[in-house]
Write a structure and sequence with these properties.
eight-stranded parallel beta barrel; 8 strands; binds 2-phosphoglycolic acid
């Protein structure tokens, strides 16, 4: 049985004060959640969030990590810094990082290696652009992203990676993929994983859908065979929405 995960990606939102207010309001509302609940605050809010989340059922995630242990990398955050804060999950290769911050399939692969070395669960984001979808290149793009991300990752480690399928055209646009389409594509992703490793690995990997997930879309999404959870952006920073998504 695969784990179900509802993960909130706060992106570049929330000061320290806003973080405190949000989490104090959220925690009692999601304490009976049936899924694993994860919040991914910006780096500046991680330490505070870590304290507030202690003893709760909500896990801490980070939005990025650097692929080196330490050194002269101005502006970067190392795996040890995150380990120290009690981070469990790290989002890797989000399309916004690929699009605006030069993240490549190669850096994604290095970061996944680093996450696994430090016993984090990487949350690998993959997804096609509208142009790639319309030119029928979706399967090719997803296959490339996955094969490169898993390069030289052992079978045992591969099972610790969470994959988030996030079509770029659905992120922050209010256009969500239909549950049926998302399920089909995630089933395709399982086939790609099965081709790299085997069926057992592909059936063990937790796979999320992301892209305009809202309280009124989550129930159907969660009923699909291949979808194990959601990576939520915009709706994860509105307490009432995130609560309804978690308690779908
Ligand atoms: P969205 O973002 O829910 O606002 O579309 C999802 C994501 O980028 O992870």
């Amino acid at each position: 049985m695969r784990k179900n995960i509802i993960m909130g990606n706060w992106k570049m939102h929330f000061t320290i004060e806003e973080t405190e207010e949000f989490l104090n309001s959220l925690l009692p509302k999601v304490k009976n959640a049936k899924t694993e609940v994860v919040v991914c605050p910006p780096f500046t809010s991680l330490a505070l969030s870590s304290n507030i989340l202690k003893g709760s059922n909500v896990k801490l995630g980070a939005q990025n990590v650097h692929f080196e242990e330490k050194g002269a990398f101005t502006g970067e955050i190392s795996p040890n810094m995150l380990k120290n804060l009690g981070v469990s999950y790290i989002i890797i290769g989000h399309s916004e990082r690929r699009m605006y911050f030069g993240e490549t399939d190669e850096t994604v692969n290095k970061k996944i290696h680093m996450c696994l070395k430090h016993k984090f669960n990487p949350v690998l984001c993959v997804g096609e652009s509208l142009e790639e979808k319309e030119s029928n290149n979706m399967e090719k793009v997803l296959t490339r992203q996955i094969e490169k991300a898993f390069f030289n990752i052992s079978e045992e480690d591969a099972k610790k990676v969470v994959i988030a399928y996030e079509p770029i055209w659905a992120i922050g646009t209010g256009k969500t993929a239909t549950s049926f389409d998302a399920d089909n594509i995630i089933s395709f992703i399982r086939k790609v994983i099965s081709g790299i490793y085997n069926k057992e690995v592909s059936e063990n990997i937790v796979m999320l859908y992301g892209g305009s997930v809202k309280p009124n879309t989550i129930k159907e999404q969660m009923s699909m065979e291949n979808i194990d959870g959601a990576l939520v952006g915009g709706a994860s920073i509105v307490v009432e929405d995130f609560e309804r998504i978690v308690n779908f």
